[in-house]
Amino acid sequence: MIWFACKLCGKKQSRPDDQAGSLVFCTCGQANRVPWETEAGAEEAPQAFPKVWLDTSSPPAPAPRSLQEPLRRPLSPGYCFNHVHAPSTQSCSACLIEFCDNCIVKLGDQYLCGPCKNFRVLSLTRPARPSVLSVVCLALGLAGGPVAGCLTLWGVGPAAGSMGLALIILAFVLPVVTLVLGIKAISDMGSNRRIGGRGMAIIGIMSGIAGVLWCITVAGILAYHLAGG
Fold it and tell me: How far, in Å, CA of 198 to CA of 130, rounded?
């Protein structure tokens, strides 16, 4: 590097050796010719940096937790998973890991840890799925009414007599099955909140009750006629 001073302001400047003899401009606007060699007193002295002393008597500070490897601690039987010095008092009903009283909560009739409790609560907020029994109950209730009506009308019409009474008894089957399925579906919903379809089960039960009442009425009329009424 070639060092020289500006002729106007005296500011020290430097240029590579291959730019010797070229014309350059200073920040003050003065044009200067780069000399062929460094001018006396124009070269800047290298900056002196303070010396840093290292204290080797104390160990270096540990690296931040984010730069360290993840902590891998084996499970200690009889102690809490989160607090290594606290004795465990209860095991999680879901993951079966042992925890102390501060790390376990009771949800319903089960004891759960924090993550398992959060997962269980999240699953409870999801929409309930329709019960299969409630769907079948609704289908039989809607189909059983017309079938029972046709059988009972046939029993009191062309097939009046003992044959008609048998058809009326046969017409009882679909409404009764609908009632049984509907009651079973509502009972399952009471024991499991994740099962829905209560409205469909109630409609099926009402249809079954209507079918049973219709069959009883027609059976009474037919029995009255057979008795000579």
Answer: 8
Count the domains in the chain.
Answer: 3
Whole-model pTM: value is 0.42
In which element (H, E) is residue 14 found? strand 12-15
Kindly tell me if the per-residue pLDDT of 48 is higher than 70.
no
Q: How confident is the model at residue 213 (pLDDT cuts 50, 70, 90)?
A: confident
Q: Is the pLDDT of residue 201 over 60?
A: yes
DSSP state of 41: T
Q: Are 136 and 222 members of one domain?
A: yes
Q: How far apart are CA 169 and CA 116, in angstroms?
A: 53
Question: Are residues 157 and 206 located together in one domain of the fold?
Answer: yes
| Residues 156 and 212 both lie in one domain | yes
* Of 56-65, 90-99, 126-135, 193-202, highest mean pLDDT: 90-99
* Contact indicator for 137, 178 with CB cutoff of 8 Å: yes
Burial class (CB in 10 A: 0-12, 13-18, 19+), 66: exposed
Crossing angle of the two packed helices 173-191 and 162-171, in degrees rounded to 10? 20
210 C-beta neighbours (distance < 10 Å), count? 16
The residue among 110, 105, 99 whose CA lies nearest residue 77 is 99
End-to-end distance of the chain based on CA atoms, in angstroms? 134
